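We were asked to recover a plausible sequence for a given structure. The inputs and outputs are reproduced exactly as logged, with field labels preserved.

PROBLEM: sequence recovery
POSITIONS: 408
GIVEN STRUCTURE:
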C-alpha cells in the first residue's frame, strides 16, 4: 500500500457510521460484499430531496415535480456515462439486481422453447439461479451449469463444450460474492455471441470495485444494485441493449409504463418507461447518481490499487494462522476473503469476532452450490472496501486467532 495519494483517514471522515462503537469497540466493518456503507454526500442527497423537492416524477406540471423529474433523469444520465452506455433509455431503474434479473427472466419466457438451453455458472448467487430455474420450468428449456474448479475459477474449456446452437442465454456474475473471483466476462461474451446466445452479467458484486464499459463489452444485459456501491438500498439498474429491451415484454403493469389505456387494449410507453411501472424509488435513484459521483471522485484506479493492497496483506496475515483455509484463490479477484478454521463452525467464529466489534458474514452467502462444491456448511467472509485500513485487517487477524483459541 504505497499509494500516497490515497488518504484513507480522510476518506473515512466521509462515512459517519465508521465512528460507531459496537460492543464497546470501534466498528470494523468487513461485510461490504453484503452492502457497503454510505458516505455523507449520499445521505445528504436523500435528505435534500425529501426536505426540498419531494414530488412525484413525470406527472405534474408543477415546479417541484419538474425538479424531481430533472434530478431523476440526471441520475439516469450519470449511470449511463459511468457504465459507458450508448443511450439513456437503455438504463432501466429497478429495485435492485434481483428485480432486474427477474425482469429479464420473465421476458425471456416468450422466446424460449423446449430444447433450448440456458447456461449459468456454478458460482452464482441464488438470485441468479432461481429465476432461471423458474424460466426453464415455464418454457421447457434446460438449465446447464458451467463448472468451477478448486481455486474458484470457471472451467472455460467446459464452458466452450457446453456452448451450442441450442444455447440461448448465458448468465454469469462478473464477480462472485462468495469467493471474490473476477470472471473472464469479455471472453464469455465473445464466445456466447458466436453461437448466437444472449449474455446477462450480474454486476452486483463488481461495481464497487470495477468500472465496466458496457458498450465496449458488447454485453446484452448487465445488472447491479446501488447499495453495494455506496448508494441506498432499494434501487438498482438493468442495462439492456436497445434491441433487446424493445423486444422484451413489460414485466409489471401499472402507471407510468403505458401510452394509452382503454379496457380493450393498452399500448405501452417507450423505453425506459415500459419497464418502470408505478412510482419508483425517486430519492434512491437520485442518490444512486450521487454515489456514482462520489466513487468517481475517489477514482476506480485508486480504489482498485488500494483494495488490492488490503487483499494481499489480509491474505498473507490470515494464512499465518494454522488450520485456516481460504476458499477462492483465483489470481483475478476482488477484496473478498472466504475462509474457515479447521474443525470450527463459521458461525461460531462470526459470533466471537462480532463481540470485538468486527462485522463479517458467515454462512453460505446465498451461494449454496459453491458450499456444496467444497463440501462445507459455509464460510466466514471478510470483504474489504476502500475505507478499510491495514489496522482493521490486524484487528481481524487477532480476533480470528482469539476465536481459534476459544473454540479449539
Ligand atoms: C448481492 C448480490 C445479488 C443480489 O443483489 P440484491 O441487491 O439483493 O438484489 C446478486 N448477485 C450477486 C453476485 C450479489 O453479490
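RECOVERED SEQUENCE:
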Amino acid at each position: 500500500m504505497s499509494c500516497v495519494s490515497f488518504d484513507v483517514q480522510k476518506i473515512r471522515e466521509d462515512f459517519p457510521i465508521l465512528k460507531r462503537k459496537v460492543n464497546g469497540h470501534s466498528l470494523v466493518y468487513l461485510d461490504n460484499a453484503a452492502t457497503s456503507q454510505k458516505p455523507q454526500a449520499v445521505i445528504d442527497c436523500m435528505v435534500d430531496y425529501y426536505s426540498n423537492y419531494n414530488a412525484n416524477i413525470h406527472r405534474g406540471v408543477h415546479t417541484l415535480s419538474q425538479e424531481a423529474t430533472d434530478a431523476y433523469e440526471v441520475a439516469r444520465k450519470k449511470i449511463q456515462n459511468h457504465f459507458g452506455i450508448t443511450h439513456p433509455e437503455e438504463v432501466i431503474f429497478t429495485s435492485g439486481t434481483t428485480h432486474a434479473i427477474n425482469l429479464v427472466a420473465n421476458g425471456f419466457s416468450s422466446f424460449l422453447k423446449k430444447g433450448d438451453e440456458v447456461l449459468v455458472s456454478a458460482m452464482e448467487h441464488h438470485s441468479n439461479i432461481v429465476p432461471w430455474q423458474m424460466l426453464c420450468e415455464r418454457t421447457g428449456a434446460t438449465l446447464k451449469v458451467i463448472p468451477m474448479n478448486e481455486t474458484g475459477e470457471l472451467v472455460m474449456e467446459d464452458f466452450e463444450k457446453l456452448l451450442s446452437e441450442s444455447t440461448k442465454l448465458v448468465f454469469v456474475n462478473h464477480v462472485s460474492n462468495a469467493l471474490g473471483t473476477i470472471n473472464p466476462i469479455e471472453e464469455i461474451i465473445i464466445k456466447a455471441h458466436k453461437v448466437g446466445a444472449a449474455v446477462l452479467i450480474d454486476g452486483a458484486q463488481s461495481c464497487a470495485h470495477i468500472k465496466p464499459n458496457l458498450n465496449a463489452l458488447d454485453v446484452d444485459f448487465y445488472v447491479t444494485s446501488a447499495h453495494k456501491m455506496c448508494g441506498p438500498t432499494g434501487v438498482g439498474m438493468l442495462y439492456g441493449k436497445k434491441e433487446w429491451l424493445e423486444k422484451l415484454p413489460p414485466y409489471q403493469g401499472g402507471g407510468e409504463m403505458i401510452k394509452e389505456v382503454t379496457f380493450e387494449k393498452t399500448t405501452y410507453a417507450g423505453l425506459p418507461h415500459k419497464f418502470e411501472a408505478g412510482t419508483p424509488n425517486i430519492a434512491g435513484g437520485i442518490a444512486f447518481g450521487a454515489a456514482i459521483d462520489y466513487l468517481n471522485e475517489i477514482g476506480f484506479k485508486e480504489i482498485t490499487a488500494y483494495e488490492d493492497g488490503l487483499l494481499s496483506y489480509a491474505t498473507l496475515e490470515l494464512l499465518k494462522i494454522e488450520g485456516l483455509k481460504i476458499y477462492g484463490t483465483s489470481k483475478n479477484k476482488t477484496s473478498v476473503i472466504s475462509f474457515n478454521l479447521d474443525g470450527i463452525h463459521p458461525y461460531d467464529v462470526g459470533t466471537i469476532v462480532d463481540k470485538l466489534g468486527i462485522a463479517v458474514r458467515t454462512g453460505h452467502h446465498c451461494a449454496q452450490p459453491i458450499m456444496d462444491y467444497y463440501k462445507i456448511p459455509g464460510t466466514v467472509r471478510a470483504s474489504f472496501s476502500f475505507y478499510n485500513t491495514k489496522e482493521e485487517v490486524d484487528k481481524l487477524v487477532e480476533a480470528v486467532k482469539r476465536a481459534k483459541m476459544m473454540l479449539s
